[in-house]
Amino acid sequence: RIKYGVVAMKDLATDILTWDQFYLSGRLQKPVRVLVDNWDIRMVNTVNLKMAAAASLLLLPKEFTEHDLYAKICSLSYMGDIRMLFAEDKYKVKKIVDGSFQPFQLMYRPLIQDYISEGILKMSDYRQQKAFKQIYLQDCGVSATNELFSSLPRMIQRRLQGRFTSNSTEIPTHIPTRALVPSKEVAAASVRTALRRRVMVSSARQAACGLLASGGLVAARYLGKKMSKALSTRCLTFF
Which domain covers residue 34, as residue numbers? Predict the structure, then answer.
């Protein structure tokens, strides 16, 4: 009935700041309810939110809606997730954003304003008639792209340089502290590849841990319900 976990605060902070596992950091990119907090995780998580916004902007086209931005942020932690292939609702991201739009705004509107002040984003004069969600235009030039890319975790920047190793979090001294990308397309490809590989490993590990922790019968029932729900959305789409 309730999903919960136990984690050392040091491990939580490491994942938030480096996307080392991209599991807890992915969850904290979405609205959550914090019950107990000894390290002011909300403050630490602002770094995570900025990196999520930067990665999403690199993956989005020049023109997008506010809903598009939150949907892309929400989808980051599902890229490469093996469970999305057979055991998740295909509309899960949209439902999360639709049901938590205002909390998303509270989390990311300050960052959007910062990007507007820096000239990376600007607001369009056109607004959707029904949804009334602001349209944004982003600067897709090399300078703005590198500004966004340089704020991402080192594991993504090192992927671009071909020296990334999944078992290492150390930054080799011969790698520049700031990676440069020639275009937005190259930056987006690096983000997409790095996150898919990281999420694939993390989701497989969590699926195995869930099976061991809950036991075969409980896990089978849970998986059956998830698969049934996922199948129903696909059948509705088909018919």
Answer: 9-238
| DSSP element (H, E) containing 77 | none
Rounded Cα distance between 87 and 135, Å, is 33
Q: Which residues contact 107 (CB under 8 A, 6 or more apart)?
A: 31, 49
3-class secondary-structure state, position 160: helix
Q: Which residue(s) pair with 134 in the sheet?
A: 127
Q: Angle at Cα 205 formed by Cα 175 and Cα 1, nearest 5°?
A: 130
Residue type, position 16, single letter: I
Place of tokens 């807890």: 24
- Could you give the angle at the alpha carbon of 48 between the alpha carbons of 211 and 73, nearest 5°? 75
Asked if 24 contacts 39 with a C-beta cutoff of 8 angstroms, the reply is: no
Q: Report residue 163: phi and psi, to 5°.
A: -120, 15
Q: Which two tokens stand for residue 196?
A: 């898919």
**Per-residue tens of pLDDT for the chain, all 239 residues:** 677 777 888 899 999 999 988 989 999 999 988 877 777 888 899 999 999 999 999 999 999 999 999 999 999 999 877 766 655 677 889 999 999 999 999 999 999 999 999 999 999 876 554 455 789 999 999 999 999 999 999 888 887 765 434 444 444 434 445 668 999 999 999 999 999 888 888 777 776 776 676 666 666 666 666 556 655 555 544 43
**Number of domains the chain is built from:** 1
> Is there a domain that residue 4 lies in?
no
Q: pTM for this structure? A: 0.79
One-letter identity of residue 106: L
How far is 108 from 134, CA to CA, in rounded Å? Answer: 13
Residue 135 belongs to what H/E stretch? Answer: strand 134-138
Q: Is residue 2 part of a domain?
A: no
